[in-house]
Specification:
Layout lengths: L2 H5 L9 H7 L5 E4 L5 E6 L2 E6 L3 H7 L3 E4 L5 H8 L3 E9 L8 H9 L6 E4 L4 H6 L14 H7 L3 E5 L2 E12 L2 E8 L8 H16 L2 E3 L1 E2 L2 H9 L4 E10 L6
Parallel strand pairs: 3-4, 9-10
Antiparallel strand pairs: 1-2, 2-3, 4-12, 5-11, 5-12, 6-7, 7-8, 8-9
Helix pairs in contact: 5-8
């Protein structure tokens, strides 16, 4: 039995694609204590903590967003990280294959304003997206442009030759992707996120992939519901204002 197989029971039933991806050996990494009674899965900006609360694991896993599975991690996180860890809320979105209305999604794509066009993320676009703060998470999980286009999937809205909104793969796992949607601030409220998100969902459906979604805030929940998803439960996270030392 591998180490990943030994810690996998700590995450049983946790419907989080980044956890699945790591345990499948696709993306991310895991750390655990010596007795394997606690573990953390680290992927992108997220660290998912499960098992018996362990302060050393908190130190090892400290990233931008800590996601404790149970409330008994809260005092440990707060004791280790102090006021650098700010408690917040994210919103789970239900994973429901077969829930999508293709005609509705196609209508969002067709409603893209005339001055914009949709373009699939290709190797030439990846460095452009990585160079801008608003768009880097559309493809930052991958090892380079070729890897992004081989394993990932995404579409951007182009305006005057530049990407200004997009929907991409924050992570991938066996059978699906985790959707990331971002829009440049000066192009918001024009239906671009809806068009890009709908186009990506349709492409996933055509390829037999599940387009998973997790909401950063209530605006993201609203967009998800607009595209056909249903809201799940809110959950606690810690946003980490980390200066690189513990």
């Amino acid at each position: 039995m591998t180490d990943l197989e030994r810690i996998a029971p700590l995450f049983d039933g946790w419907e989080e694609t980044m956890i699945w991806s790591c345990l499948q050996g696709v993306m991310g990494r895991a750390v655990w204590n010596g007795s394997r009674t606690a573990a953390a899965v680290i992927s992108g900006d997220f660290a998912f903590l499960a098992g018996e609360p362990d302060g050393e694991l908190v130190r090892q896993a400290a990233g931008a967003i800590l996601v404790p599975r149970t409330a008994d991690w809260h005092p440990v996180i707060e004791a280790v990280l102090g006021d650098r860890a700010v408690r917040g809320t994210r919103y789970a979105i239900r994973k429901e294959p077969g829930v999508f209305d293709r005609a509705r999604l196609e209508a969002f794509v067709s409603a893209l304003p005339a001055k914009y066009r949709l373009r699939q993320i290709d190797e030439a676009l990846v460095p452009v997206l990585l160079s801008a703060g608003w768009s880097r998470d559309l493809c930052s999980a991958f090892e380079g442009p070729a890897d992004c286009c081989r394993r990932g999937l995404g579409f951007v809205a182009m305006y005057e030759g530049a990407p200004v909104a997009g929907a991409g793969s924050y992570c991938v796992y066996d059978g699906g992707i985790e959707i990331e949607i971002d829009t440049r601030e000066d192009h918001r409220r024009r239906g671009l996120a809806s068009a890009c998100g709908a186009r990506l969902i349709l492409e996933c459906l055509d390829r037999g992939l599940y387009p998973s979604w997790d909401a950063h805030d209530l605006r993201s929940v609203s967009l998800a519901e607009k595209l056909g998803y249903h809201r799940g439960e809110p959950y606690t996270v810690y946003w980490l204002n980390w200066d690189g030392t513990l």
